[in-house]
Specification:
Layout: E1 7-12, H1 22-33, E2 38-44, H2 51-56, E3 59-66, E4 75-79, H3 81-86, H4 94-107, E5 114-121, H5 133-136, H6 139-154, H7 160-172, H8 202-212
Parallel strand pairs: 1-2, 1-3, 3-5
Antiparallel strand pairs: 4-5
Amino acid sequence: MTVPGKITCLAVGNTIMGDDGIGQALLELVQDRGPAGVDYVDGAIAGLELLGEFQDAERLLVLDAVAGPGVPGEAVRLEGADIRRFIPQNVSPHQVGLMDLFGAARLLNDEPDELVVVGVVAEKIELEVGLTETARSGLEAAAQLALDQLAAWTSGPAGADVEAADADCTARGDGTAGADGAAGADVPAQSSGPAAPEPPSPSATSTQSSVNSRP
């Protein structure tokens, strides 16, 4: 069941298959510099065991090696149909499980509201510990793409902070609210109508009476 507001950053890959360990290398960079309130998960090659991560997250960022677009070493951000296009099942064994996760979550009608994949185009995926220098060259740029995505998800809708500040100013009446706010609440209210005439002095009343009494 999707947990409202839950954001998960999930790395997948196999660290003994060369550039297939790109996801874990990215997770190390992103987790150290990423926002609080995000679940950072190293999914390794768990496959369908990670279905719960897909079901629970409202927004899911997957870190992984990708097959394109672009050349090896290029940082890539994927969403929508491009995810299936550039993470083919034959790139590495663990990605069969990743595609199964996408399909299973959709079949159960319990997939994340937003799903984004960030990675680096792999150069060589074979039995070997460690990334190629080509893959390493794209890690920093890919990490920044991931951090930007997480920042966008955790900061809320554009303008929300400004609206909240305006509402707070209005509630406090601190002088920064608009004309309809509570600013100036401590100033005595003044009537906007015409000023009431001053009562006539006794001499003026006496003169007026004598004028009216003349024949």
